[in-house]
Amino acid sequence: MRDVLGHFASGVVVVTAAGPDGRLGFTCQSFASLSLDPPLVSFAPARTSSTWPRIREAGVFCVNVLADDQEALSAGFARSGVDKFAGVDWRRGPDDAPLLGGACAWIGCTFWREYDGGDHTIVVGQVRDLAADASRSPLLFHRGRYGLTRPDGCPQEENGSPA
User: Fold this and answer.
1) What would the DSSP string read from start to end of the chain?
2) Cα-flanking dihedrals φ and ψ of residue 135, to 5°?
3) Residue 58 phi/psi, 5° resolution?
């Protein structure tokens, strides 16, 4: 299943919040726009996540859409037991949720609903504020690696030619 579904390219986001004990964040690739009216987005953290329950408790969060040069941020926010914000460029956004520097876009949300999703939980956030930098390209994840890959497994550039 992982191999077949890996053929669907996805963006990579970092969900952030300001918790009572400091800044929180985790990497997630299962993010989607859900509804325009009301404005809703969704993402699916693993049930094993120790960060998501603390973000849920905060009630507000920011979805940071990573740019194509932010692989290190994606990897850093996927780790556990470390200061994920060490050396990271960020600023306070609406509701104090951290906005990551250099991201393509950010979406400020309030927690709206949560649903069972097997080994993940499906989270729906109501969009309160958002912005994008049209000069930045998104970080993509495809076939188990960052960027698009050709059928032979080699990376390809954005225009489709070999890297």
Assistant:
1) -HHHHTTS-EE-EEEEEEETTEEEEEEES-EEEEEETTEEEEE--BTT-SSHHHHHHH-EEEEEE-BTT-HHHHHHHT-SSS-TTTT--EEE-GGGPEEETT-SEEEEEEEEEEEEETTEEEEEEEEEEEEE-TTPPBPEEETTEES-B-TTS-BB-TTSSB-
2) -85, -10
3) -65, -30
Asked if pLDDT for residue 90 goes beyond 80, the answer is yes
Distance separating alpha carbons of residues 79 and 1, to the nearest angstrom: 24
| DSSP string covering 126-149 | EEEEEEE-TTPPBPEEETTEES-B
- Tens digit of each residue's pLDDT (9 = 90 or more) over 108-151: 999 999 999 999 999 999 999 999 999 999 999 878 887 876 66
The amino acid sitting at 34 is L
Q: pTM for the complete prediction?
A: 0.89
Residues 99, 100, 103, 107: is their CA dihedral positive or negative?
Answer: negative
What is the reported pLDDT for 156?
64
C-beta separation of 39 from 24 below 8 A: no
Residue 147 is encoded by which pair of tokens?
A: 């960027």
Separation CA 49–CA 47 (nearest Å)? 5
